[in-house]
Amino acid sequence: KSEMDFPMLRYDIYHQQIQFIKDRDTLAFSNPEEISMIMLGNRKMIYTDFDRNGVMAKSYFELLAEGDCRLLMHRTIKYHIDEESADNLKDEIYIRECEYFIERNDETAKQIRNCRKGVLCAFKDKEEEIDSYMKEQDLKMNTCEDLKQVVDYYNSLK
After folding, report:
1. Which of 16-20, 66-70, 96-100, 127-131 has the lowest mean pLDDT?
2. CA-closest candidate to residue 43, choices 21, 76, 11, 89
3. What residues contact residue 21 under an 8 Å CB cut-off, 6+ apart?
4. Distance between CA 128 and CA 110 in Å, rounded?
5. What is the DSSP letter of 96?
6. pTM to 2 decimals?
7. 104 and 112 in contact (C-beta within 8 Å)?
């Protein structure tokens, strides 16, 4: 895997592609597995395997916490038609959603629910330490920052 520098990149959430401009054409990476990481501003993007409820796939993720355990955010767009829009017209609505995943020691990333119980289930091997830490820090586990803080703490444990 290698790192490359492209001046104009964008992440197309709808199509799950990193796109770039070459010779006035918008192109996408055909083999994203060949690139270890892409920087979009200050965001680190990786392409990796993931398991969502037993379904295996590959996609782009934002890398939020690094270490033996990595916290990844997967962004998606859901298409929805608003049946109750004004004047009986159907409005198209795109809803942006974020899901969080944990990837340990190069294993397949697994989805984590951002709630206290979901986090404790994800860190069974250090459940007592994580539980104590969440209580000490008064973490509600309903924000990205709370998840990042717990993953960073988990990575600090030996």
Report:
1. 16-20
2. 11
3. 8, 27
4. 21
5. E
6. 0.79
7. no
């996609």: which residue's tokens?
Answer: 59
> Token pair of 120, please?
């404790």
List of E strands, the chain: 9-12, 17-22, 25-28, 38-40, 43-52, 55-65, 69-82, 91-104, 109-112
- For the beta sheet containing 25-28, the strands, ordered from the edge strand earlier in sequence to the opposite edge, are 9-12, 17-22, 25-28
Q: How many residues does the chain have?
A: 158
| Angular region, 88: left φ>0, alpha ψ -120 to 50, beta rest | left
pLDDT at residue 143 greater than cutoff 80: yes
